[in-house]
């Protein structure tokens, strides 16, 4: 992998999760442009810096020995990348204070660096939370590759921070400099809520959730076909989002022991709040994690999954394939993985390479529900 060479450091960075012959870098020209600009402007050791939505520590680790760095984002995989890259480069990870996006980073901050996220609702929530957290004379700088920079991102910076100056593009990357001005305290529109008819429940979604204003069509296709068990099944909702699959299954299987896991902190927060609102104090394990990587082998009877086909702006089936492998490892012999997927993704063939038997439970014009037995 190429070395990330900047005015501040030379770093050997990897993405998370790791894969052999990784085709993508853990940094890009937007990170380079931002760090070069900071070096030209100057930093002091007393500068209190907040980095939002860092890519596997590319920004935070460059600045860790230059100023006081806090980092906040919604990806647990990005956090694991920050930790792994600190070790890889013999840096003290404790020099970077990490705050999950489900919590508010407490300032005051002299400098805020923002990688524009894929979900603009996340950016809006992050900008709202900056109210009252900026020190006098603070600088706010956002960056992205041009192909991932919608006009609405600049509009949000203008709305919540102040006037925005767009610098000339360099290597297809752009910087947006926002000059903080006094603003009235904003009211966050998040979390959003919607109701389901079957099961009859209300769900909330925090800002960074996929399909935030309603149930996504894949999950909608899956729900009527969820299995039901009366016994004490050990069940995981893998990539749980707001927890709807795990909650719906739990409602029909009163003795089941549920684990809900997602790599998004806001998803975990949503699932926790939804579970408590619907199922009260019924025991459950809801956690942020790298899928089922930390799950003990042969500790589950059933895994439910609506697998993602992208990681941030990167589209592909690598994460889904990895989730299938994790599920196989975590399931007991005879245990089952139930998934929903687009027909064209060919999950049946992929599952057949890992599992003893694969059955089609249901088929719709766009989706299939599959059951794979270990």
Automatic annotation (TrEMBL):
Keywords: Cytoplasm, Methyltransferase, rRNA processing, S-adenosyl-L-methionine, Transferase
Domain annotation Methyltransferase small: ranges: 201-371
Domain (RlmG N-terminal) ranges: 1-181
Lineage top rank: taxon: Bacteria
Pfam family of the protein (one): MTS
Entry GO CC: cytoplasm
PROSITE patterns (UniProt xref): N6_MTASE
Primary localization class, coarse: cytoplasm
Location of the protein in the cell: Cytoplasm
Catalyzed reactions per annotation: guanosine(1835) in 23S rRNA + S-adenosyl-L-methionine = N(2)-methylguanosine(1835) in 23S rRNA + S-adenosyl-L-homocysteine + H(+)
UniProt EC number: 2.1.1.174
GO molecular function list: 23S rRNA (guanine(1835)-N(2))-methyltransferase activity; nucleic acid binding
Family per record: Belongs to the methyltransferase superfamily. RlmG family.
Task performed by this protein: Specifically methylates the guanine in position 1835 (m2G1835) of 23S rRNA.
Descriptive protein name: Ribosomal RNA large subunit methyltransferase G
Species per Swiss-Prot/TrEMBL record: Pseudomonas xionganensis
